[in-house]
Design goal:
- The chain has no helices and ten strands.
- The strands form three sheets. It has a five-stranded antiparallel beta sheet with strand order 3-4-9-7-6, with no helix packed on it.
- The protein has a single domain, classed as Fimbrial-type adhesion domain (Immunoglobulin-like), CATH 2.60.40.
- The chain is mainly β.
- The chain is rod-shaped, with a radius of gyration of 39 Å.
- The protein is about 0% helix and about 40% strand.
Length: about 170
């Protein structure tokens, strides 16, 4: 909308000057919206798999027990299992785990319970550890035992165990 401003002069020749004057419009606002979204999928992450060290041992006439903790984080409501393979020691199986130093081996076992009666293996539904994620880190203790045994030659014995989380 505009307004017309008129100047009228009275002189011998009457001139009329008219100029349009704009009117100030009232402020206007428009809004819009947009959607923010994400799809959360079932997922797990292995946060920590610290070494399990029996330390220095000599003649083992009594079992040597140690523990370690695996930390896993899974999305809330995600069911998962943790499996431990036999390890890469020569001749190692889930039922008879071994650390190796060349051709020599040293027996040990991994358990999922403090009483050391449930061998922790890799067959889902049989000897793995299951849980349901809550979105936070969840700790699972590995209970290791080196049974009394005849000691092989001195040296460093090792076995690399693979942790698998299935969900």
């Amino acid at each position: 909308m505009s307004c017309l401003l008129v100047f009228h002069m009275s002189w011998p020749s009457q001139a009329v000057l008219s100029l349009p004057v704009p009117q100030l419009a009232a402020a206007a606002t428009k809004t819009g919206t947009f959607l923010v979204s994400a799809v959360v999928v079932s997922d797990c992450d292995i946060r920590s798999t610290p070494n399990l060290a029996f330390g220095e041992v000599g003649a083992i006439s009594q079992p040597v027990d140690v523990t370690s903790v695996i930390i896993v984080a899974c999305t809330a409501g995600t069911a998962y299992t943790i499996a431990l393979n036999p390890g890469d020691g020569t001749g190692s199986t889930v039922a008879d785990r071994r650390m190796s130093n060349g051709t020599n081996s040293l027996k040990y076992q991994l358990y999922s319970d403090a009483a050391r009666t449930a061998v922790w293996g890799q067959t889902v539904g049989t000897d793995t550890v299951g849980a349901t994620g809550n979105g936070n880190d969840q700790e699972r203790t590995i209970y290791g035992r080196m049974p009394a045994q005849t000691m092989p030659a001195a040296g460093t014995y090792q076995s690399r165990v693979t942790v698998t989380v299935q969900y």
